[in-house]
Amino acid sequence: MKYSVTLLPGDGIGPEVSKAMVRAVDFVTGGRIDWEPVVAGSTAVDQGLSPLPDEAIDSIRRNRIAIKGPLQTPVAGGWRSVNVLLRQSLELFACVRPVRSMPGNTLARYQGVDQIIVRENTEGLYSGREHEVVDGVVEALKIVTRDASRRIMQFAFEYARSHGRKKLTIVHKASITPLSDNLFLDCARECERKYPFFQVEYLPLDNLALDLATDPTRFDMLVMGNLDGDLISDLCAGLVGGLGVVPGANYGEGCAVFEAVHGTAPDIAGRDLANPIALILSAELMLRYVGEADAADHLRAGVERLLVSGESLTRDLGGRANTSELTDALLGELDAVAGEAKGAARRPARGPAHRQPDSAR
Ligand code: NAI
Question: Which of 42, 226, 276, 354 could form a disulfide with 17 if both were Cys (CB 3.0 to 4.6 A apart)?
Fold first, then answer.
């Protein structure tokens, strides 16, 4: 089946990693995706457009699915974060970031990490409500609502159920913001009662930071508010080899936008140095979302083989290859995976006479 996917190449290293991702996805899907490229962020502003042109939003609304490179937000103002605007406009309320140790990745600080971060994506300190009360006094509002907290908790518990997860860690700082964080926690407790088969723990953010640094393998799923999720995602990426290998997805009702955790990396942009694996693994999540499990498995197997080979890796992974060389090598691995699958399919199935008895397996 053919379908359309909105492609926002993004700013900085975005176009470079997007190009690599498209090559890999076209390979595993046999070119069945119609990419619909649209611009946003500083690329759009440079073309005289708004940071989030209607064309981009309309395209995502039509296709219900998009994959994007990072978008730049000027620190000194200019425009509000296009990422936040996108998530809020499309009600992409749940951000999911699987953080996993990758085979062969010798730069990873820890092995055996396999955790899912679920981040509330629409409110908290990202409400954009900030103002100067009087000269020298600024107020930033952290908005927490029961509706959004219930929605993210329900999503997280259901995600845990459908993905075979066993334990949820709900992160908070209720000692400092008791009203807002206890509202968040109450919604988690409601879900805990509905899903009594899960182990649920409630952990202050500072304790989480310490535990992640000492033993990140003890966590299965982490559920948290918007800002905490942003910070902890980067920290967790650091545990498994850096921002170049951690994918992400933003889910709403019947709409999903996939993107890596990393930003536009202005320090290496335009130099063919960026690691495209995080966006490629985000595409794996996208393929699973649309039910293309075989293509997703194929993509993952290729990435794992590449990492295990230790060849043609970018500098952030300890290698010397550039983005294009890594992508060429990945296509080679994808080809090898396809070749092995074909070989296995051609081999005659072993009949019952050859089957080993259960006791011998
Ligand atoms: P960043 O993630 O762009 O870079 C942090 C460090 O990681 C840099 O040293 C960079 O070279 C390295 N890095 C990041 N991705 C890499 C990759 N794929 N391969 C190799 N190295 C990589 O974070 P920073 O510098 O804080 O943000 C830069 C811009 O990106 C800002 O304008 C920010 O607003 C934006 N941003 C956008 C995001 C998005 O669109 N989802 C997410 C985070 C930041």
Answer: 276
